[in-house]
Design goal:
This protein has helices at about 10-30, 35-50, 60-80, 100-110, 115-125, 130-135, 140-160. By secondary structure, the chain is mostly helical.
Length: about 170
């Protein structure tokens, strides 16, 4: 009788500590500040359940961003199905940098088409190569690269003077 040895896996708490900030940045970029915390929580709840079955050689960061992408879609679809009237206006999102540009950039990012916003979030914020971005968003590597380039070009116009990344190949 043969037994296969599985390499020890990092505790899930270490995964959250290592990738939590990246997943939150992606959720904020894709959904905006109002729904980002919910998407982040739902991402890690789903990941906790699936983590024991994750192959040992898996790219954990790309796996988490994929889950966050699916949770963002779920939240967007749920919001589109019904409006929720509120008695009080929700609290404003936390303030950005002292120069106030952080909120302007968030607004400019939110104004981008969904594919461009996702490509920028997954490539520039999560640091995933375009091949992984394409796998998450459901397109080709070239389409993901084009969406990111078009999004950065639009941001350069709508957010002047921004220190945005130059085009690159990954």
């Amino acid at each position: 009788m043969s037994t296969s040895r599985v390499a020890p896996r990092a505790p899930f708490e270490a995964v959250v500590a290592e990738h939590g900030a990246t997943v939150l940045r992606v959720c904020r970029a894709v959904l905006g500040p109002a729904d980002a915390d919910d998407a982040w929580s739902e991402t890690f709840l789903a990941a906790l359940k699936a983590y024991p079955r994750l192959p040992g050689d898996a790219n954990v960061e790309a796996w988490l961003v994929t889950i966050a992408h699916r949770k963002a879609i779920d939240i967007t679809r749920a919001a589109a199905r019904h409006a929720v009237p509120v008695a009080d206006v929700p609290e404003p999102p936390p303030a950005g940098p002292a120069d106030g540009r952080g909120l302007d950039l968030a607004g400019a990012l939110a104004a981008l088409p969904r594919r461009q916003r996702e490509a920028i979030a997954y490539h520039y914020l999560a640091g995933l190569p375009y091949q992984d971005v394409a796998a998450i968003t459901g397109g080709s590597t070239d389409a993901a690269r084009r969406a990111a380039a078009d999004g950065i070009a639009r941001l350069r116009k709508t957010y002047p003077g921004a220190a945005l990344p130059d085009g690159e190949d990954s």
